[in-house]
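Human:
If only I could read backbone structure tokens as easily as an amino acid sequence. I am handing you a single protein, as its sequence and its fold in token form. I hope you can help me see how the letters and the tokens relate. Thank you; the sequence and its tokens follow:
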Amino acid sequence: MHIVISQTPHELGKAAGTAAAQFIREAIDAKDSANIILATGTSQFETLNQLVSEDIDWNKVVMFHLDEYIGLSVTHPASFRKYLQERFLSKVSPLKAAYLINGETDPQKKCDRLGDLITKHPIDVALVGIGENGHLAFNDPPADFETEQPYIIVELDEACRKQQMGEGWFKSVEDVPRRAISMSIKQILKSKHIICSVPDERKAVAVKNCLKQPVSNLYPASILQLHGNCICYLDKNSAALLSHKIHS
């Protein structure tokens, strides 16, 4: 894992989005297509803003996404399908394919279908974040590091649900769904390149635990330490508790 620290979330997003775009273009140059994973949430705002501004042949790109609440309408402000449609898909030319997670259908059947699809599309670039509880996608601690299933049904812990409310997606913790469909840890790690964007001081403890503690399913995103091509983009606030800093 390589760590890049910027001063502001905007600078972080610009650096992360630029790097992701370059990896996507390299994949297209090499095999005339690119398979990508996109994350959602406030941590991805600036990274996606940069990505959609890049010169990329989007009709050669296949997109998967990380996670979605079970039972949440696509019209709900917190819907990750809605997020990606508004912040990404509506701002770029049509993709070769976009496989969004529909949490309003049978969740196990959706996991199985998406799992079959993603195994046929080896991922070139994955954009991810780190949750306040250290989660990677919706794999809350203690995360399942062993399952081979590409997509799984997960129970969201209290810290995760409080984060979603705190970011303004829901009015109360009770409104946050208790279950979600999530890409599994092993599936994320199969990505050739991983771009991890983590702004904001509320993520500082999680960043320290996941980047400096030994790899543990109690700090799910710590598994990124083992990936040979992962770049973690931080800002000065999310990196505040790191003792050794690398500045961009």
